[in-house]
Amino acid sequence: MAKDFYKILGLDRTADDRAVKAAYRKLARKYHPDLNPNDKEAENRFKEVQEAYEVLSDPEKRAKYDRFGANWDRVVDDPSQWGGSGVNFDPGDLGSIFSQFFGGGGFSEADVAQPRNRGAQPSDVEKTVELTLEEIDSGTKRTLTYQVNDSCKTCDGTGQVRLRQPKPCRQCGGSGQMRSVFGVQPCTACHGRGRTDLEACPTCSGAGVLPTTKRVEVTIPAGIQEGKKLRVPGKGSMGANGRAGDLYVLVKELPHSNFKRKGDDLETEVTVPYYRALLGGEIKVDSIRPGSLSMRIPECTQSGQTFRLADQGLSLLGGKRGNLLVRVKIGIPKALSSEEKDLLKKIEAGQGVQK
Ligand SMILES: [Zn+2]
Ligand SMILES: [Zn+2]
After folding, report:
1. Are residue 167 and residue 282 in the same domain, yes or no?
2. Average pLDDT over every residue of 36-50
3. What is the largest CA-CA distance in the chain?
4. How far does the centroid of ligand 1 lie from the alpha carbon of residue 209, in Å?
5. Among 5, 105, 109, 243, which one has the highest count of C-beta atoms within 10 angstroms of its own C-beta?
6. For the domain that residue 31 is a member of, what is the CATH number?
7. Residues 87 and 180 in one domain
């Protein structure tokens, strides 16, 4: 005997997706085996409800069921139209559909029905950009190129194109009606018109999306830090629902030969001739920005001593600038002139006992 899936869910044949879901949720709870232990009747009802929902919640299966009734899953008519020739459903497999609603085994009012996955889903894309400290200091732009699904331009993402000349509906063969075990029904594909002026888009084969190489210019703000991610909304992969994921740009800082980031500050090392370290005076310090800086070091500057040049470091997010920490390294010449040697010997003699 043919089962009437609509009757099982207590729905009429015009019920929309939301009504199908609501009916399923109500009945699946009512007959769930956990709540009806050792009740054979409830178990059978539960299986029926599962089976009915599996079919009526799936637009393709539902259309096929509307057309062919109980034998819907044995009918293979036009594989391209149905997205596959085999329709598999094992009514014994109760777990998968149920868990979509109730999240595993338990019941919770908070669990919300998820739309069934159909077609391409929107997804996020992550790209890494490698930046020099100079680029981090000034802020920069990068053009990123990557592969994603994008909305098909031919059909504007709808998956369908409008025909100039309407043609007979493939599903009902032009009659506008479908005969099923429930009697004659208006065709669900053409809504009874028998003709259709829409056709699957030839460019994307109806998917609404196409793999595309995307080029996106990303503005990287000055002061961004290593490991931070910039989110560029809507520049990820497009789903069949017309929504796109986001692009995430992961910042990687390239090592610099001269400077090292230390928190908000920038560190650098300067080699100073030994006599300048002893006598003190002006020294030149490279800047992360074009040009160099000069600073005074005091008499008897020690090796490894660090001086702070305020606001001469890297740009920070928010427009401020960090400090430049200058570590002094004392330079010893590779060779001495005889004059230098004489002078140093005089100093040495003047130091008395110290060797
Ligand atoms: Zn039709
Ligand atoms: Zn298309």
Report:
1. no
2. 84
3. 121
4. 25
5. 5
6. 1.10.287.110
7. no
CA of 310 to the centre of ligand 1 (A): 77
**Token pair of 264, please?**
């908000």
Predicted local distance difference test score (pLDDT) of residue 75: 53
Q: Which residues have CB atoms below 5 A from the ion given as ligand 1?
A: 169, 171-172, 187, 189-190
**pLDDT tens by residue, 68-127:** 676 666 554 433 333 333 333 333 333 333 333 333 333 322 222 223 334 678 999 999
Residues 190 and 240 in one domain: no
Residue 165 maps to a domain: yes
User: pLDDT (tens digit, 9 = 90+) per residue, 278-324?
Assistant: 999 999 999 999 999 999 999 999 999 999 999 999 999 888 999 99
| Domain range for 75 | 5-102
Q: How many domains does the chain have?
A: 4
| Domain contains 214 | yes
Could you say which of 235, 255, 275 is where a domain stops?
A: 255
pTM value? 0.56
Contact 314, 137 (CB under 8 A): yes
Measured CA to CA in angstroms, residue 69 lies from 3, 74, 82, 287, 328 at distances of: 8, 10, 16, 79, 87
Task: Kindly identify the ligand whose nearest atom is closest to the C-alpha of 193.
Answer: 1
- 109 within a domain of the structure (yes/no): no
pLDDT in tens, 242-258: 889 999 999 999 999 99
How many angstroms does the Cα of residue 172 sit away from the middle of ligand 1?
A: 4
Residue 298 within any structural domain of the chain:
yes
The answer to whether residues 83 and 60 touch, using CB atoms and an 8 Å cutoff, is yes
State whether 152 and 225 are in the same domain.
Answer: yes
For 297-349, the DSSP string reads: E-TTPPTT-EEEETT-S-B-TTS-B--EEEEEEEE--SS--HHHHHHHHHHHH
